[in-house]
From TrEMBL, chain A:
Protein known as: Carbohydrate ABC transporter membrane protein 2, CUT1 family
Residue ranges constituting the ABC transmembrane type-1 domain according to the UniProt record: 69-260
Classification via InterPro entries: BP-dep_ABC_trans_perm (IPR050901), MetI-like (IPR000515), MetI-like_sf (IPR035906)
One Pfam family per UniProt: BPD_transp_1
Automatic annotation (TrEMBL), chain B:
GO cellular component, one term: ATP-binding cassette (ABC) transporter complex, substrate-binding subunit-containing
Source species, domain of life: Bacteria
Protein family (similarity comment): Belongs to the bacterial solute-binding protein 1 family.
Protein name as it appears in the record: Carbohydrate ABC transporter substrate-binding protein, CUT1 family
Organism of this sequence: Bosea lathyri
GO MF annotation: an example: maltose binding
Sorted UniProt keywords: Periplasm, Signal, Transport
InterPro entries associated with the record: SBP (IPR006059), TAT_signal (IPR006311)
Amino acid sequence: MTNPSSHAIRIALILILLSLATFPIYWMVVTSLTSSANLFADTPQMLPDPAQSFNYADTFKHTGVLVWLKNSAIVAIGTMVLSILLAILPAYALSRFKFRGKGGLGFVLFATQMLPEAMLVVPLYAIFTNLALLNTLGGLILANTAFTVPVITWILKGAIDGVPLEIEEAARVDGCSRLGIVLQVVVPVVAPTLAAASVIAFFHGWNEYVFAQTLVSSQELRTASVGLASFVGELSTPIHTVMAIGVMYTLPAVLFYLMVQRYVVAGMTAGSVKG
Amino acid sequence: MTGISRRTLLQAASGAAALNVTRSFAQTKETLTFAAGLFAEAGRGDKTRAWVDKFNKSQDRYAIEPVAIPFSKLADTVFTQMGGGGGPDLIRFDQTDFFAAVPAGRLFPVDDLLDLSKYKFQAADKFVKVDGKRIGIAFETANYAMLYNPALLKDGAPKDFDAFIAAAKEATGKGKFGYAYRATMPERAGFWFDLSNYVYGFGGQWGGNGEPTLNSPEVIEAITQYKRVYDLGVIPKGADAATYRRMFWEGKIAMNVDNGGVGGIFSAQAPDFKFDAAPSPFPNKAQGITLTMLAFNANSKKKAAAAAFIEWMLQPEPQAELQLLLGASNVATQIPRAEEELKKYPWVTAFDANTPNGQPFLVRSLESKTLDFQQVVCENVLRCLIGGETPKQVMADAQAQALSRILRR
């Protein structure tokens, strides 16, 4: 039986942590719905003022936020799909096959995570210029995928390690090819981990800024991260607009996470208990 | 082939070809990209885009596509693109970034694009020439003066530094602050500008004759006074410039040494807000000037289009329109202010009066190293503001670091 006082302390701790995590988002909503006069009031306004909802209407009317969000969604979903497609087979190979240089290959994949984007952006820009990939969302998807595939490969490898070989052998006895085993047997078993990996890839594509700012200059192809930053002016920043776009930028990502949250938790804990 | 017949494929191909032909007729204008932080500016950004659009409407062959890049990210983004062999065709550079790009050979001399001898340029034009070559056009120059809120200063604008300190103290309280400036690394460029105004105002320079002078008595005195203001509690510590400027036009800040463009922002964002401008309260009249240059990317092949835009923008009418939309700034050529503008913005005269005392925020005789100096100076001044070390000690360290890290001596 749980001690009621320790239960209450646990609940209180959870509430405090929850408040710390959600307060910035709440404050963003409040600021986006605060009048200019109250923005720097001596006593901060703690509740949103619905009468200021015209800030959102103005933002929709005067900025390209919908186009930016659409571009971000294309880049994030593209990065997610391509990363998963490209990571499954190497993850399976690293998990199941024995070959020369396997350790080295795994290390190289791991080492790519140690290189910051800013270091690679100049050579990447030159390569993209030659391949006519500048100013394309496809180019952005490729650049982001290059960064997410290694980490997803490692995550999937860990999950595939936990899949019993007997299942694969049974499939092979039934005449299934190696590719069929991967796609029809292994992938369904590691589906929760795939969901967790998808979230990582999606959020990388959704939040990414350096590539999006450098590799795309066309206003129509801007992602939301770049569009949002473009309001930070040399002399002034329209705080209401930035906060309203901030809310719109955060919401789709939060909704996506809520949709797949169940699988993510299952994926995170997959393989933690063996036997 | 299964599914798609050869005929369908041919029809699709000819359709695509037809579309391509149509598109090539529709896109006869050669488009130049023009990157600037200004396009992202609330108030001035839209007006500048509208100004650029006038060029687009006046042209059959060329068009400008504005590219808004946040001011703080412009240099990093554009230098990265230039390093990769591309980048925008035209760039509005801040003075420090401009002088960093010149020795790297990233900018194409404007002299080689078109003949500019017929234009009467402003005095600040001399700063865009390097080794006798004109590398850019002075797109905007803005003098510095003290903006103040008369409602918060009962004795009006302070005439000297002690009066300024007293007025700042008196105006502080009940959610209001006497003064505002920058003192954080995320706003390194602005921090450098604000520090430089103190240094120039107390008779100092960051360098001269090829030597840094970071530990000169004048610079140490300036940093001492900067710290004095910081320690007084009269500034909204941590507020970035965009925030405290907004606080200013909402009546929360009494004084702010800033450039004329900021006055323009106040007028645009809060037309009913009453403010004025006066000379900065430092012992010397010398103050910085914000100098932004229009430069042409050496990687670009669109020389004729760039020449057409520069030729257009230097005409009296576009220059006058640009000057009006920029606020209390000057443009490349000498354009007298209209009576209407002076009547509408009387505070402009305080900024214009300081033109003879303006100097760029550059390390004299070591201009191309200014960005490196910025880093060293700001890091060390922060040690004194936050870490509690003495101005004399931190500026001695800054001098030593400048000699070893920047000049490799």
